[in-house]
């Protein structure tokens, strides 16, 4: 797998990495152990009114596409706020900063962080992210990954029943940049046109006690594809998920 240059994150709780437009808020809320995970919030145009989504990248340190895609999504939120007027988006571009700095999948302690959630982990990244997931109670959680054993895009769905109905058009949108993985078994799970309804235990997800469950989507690009194609496919998928969620909510309101 390729390695990437280290990223040095700000140690200030409220010092932005770069100047941020007024609708974007950067919080760097570090665990006590000194590992800094940035969180960028895009507020809805009307205060207190918005579907709240958490978008997470870089939980595996060597999967750069999700981090780069989130950077593009943050820029989109800054430049075209009217397109996100009814969303509150919380971006977590680098969930595993030590792994990213080392260019490895695991964190500096050699653990796959995406198998550690909700099992009483003492890893500082997990403690912080679990606290955010509990505090924010997201309507939707989108995790961005890359798979070096896949030749196309695919995803996992769980939580709210509409997750599958959002991933399908997202994969269609992503197909303008990268093909969909159509295999009947992907990553050891039964799949239907790139959609998997099972999954690994311990992945980044909503708190077990949260009810109703939010929609949860894990979007995967083929890691060996050109990086710019992975990024464009991921950005298209996330934008589609948000647009389709808005439409489904509007439809439900009119029932």
From TrEMBL:
**What name appears for this protein in its UniProt entry?**
Succinylglutamate desuccinylase/Aspartoacylase catalytic domain-containing protein
Q: What's in the keyword line of the UniProt record?
A: Hydrolase, Metal-binding, Zinc
CC cofactor: Zn(2+)
State the superkingdom: Bacteria
Question: What transmembrane ranges does the database entry give?
Answer: none
Record InterPro entries: AstE_AspA_cat
Give the originating organism: Prosthecobacter dejongeii
**Domain annotation Succinylglutamate desuccinylase/Aspartoacylase catalytic: ranges:** 54-117
Q: Name one GO molecular function term.
A: hydrolase activity, acting on ester bonds
């Amino acid at each position: 797998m390729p390695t990437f240059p280290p990223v040095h994150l700000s140690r200030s709780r409220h010092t932005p990495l770069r100047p941020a437009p007024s609708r974007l808020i950067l919080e760097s809320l570090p665990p006590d152990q000194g590992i800094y995970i940035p969180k960028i919030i895009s507020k809805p145009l009307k205060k207190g009114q918005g579907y709240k989504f958490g978008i997470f990248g870089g939980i595996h340190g060597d999967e750069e596409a999700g981090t780069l895609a989130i950077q593009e999504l943050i820029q989109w939120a800054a430049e075209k706020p009217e397109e996100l007027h009814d969303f509150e988006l919380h971006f977590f571009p680098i969930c595993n900063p030590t792994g990213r700095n080392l260019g490895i999948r695991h964190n500096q302690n050699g653990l796959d962080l995406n198998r550690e959630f909700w099992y009483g982990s003492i890893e500082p990244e997990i403690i912080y992210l679990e606290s955010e997931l509990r505090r924010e109670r997201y309507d939707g959680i989108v995790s961005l990954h890359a798979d070096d054993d896949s030749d196309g895009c695919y995803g996992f769905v769980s939580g709210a029943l509409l997750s599958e109905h959002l991933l399908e058009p997202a994969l269609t949108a992503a197909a303008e940049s990268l093909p969909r993985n159509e295999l009947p078994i992907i990553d050891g799970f039964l799949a239907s046109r790139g959609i998997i309804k099972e999954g690994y235990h311990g992945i980044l997800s909503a708190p077990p006690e949260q009810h109703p469950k939010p929609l949860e989507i894990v979007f995967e690009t083929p890691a060996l594809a050109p990086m710019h194609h992975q990024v464009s496919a991921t950005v298209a998928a996330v934008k589609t998920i948000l647009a389709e969620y808005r439409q489904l909510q509007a439809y439900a309101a009119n029932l």
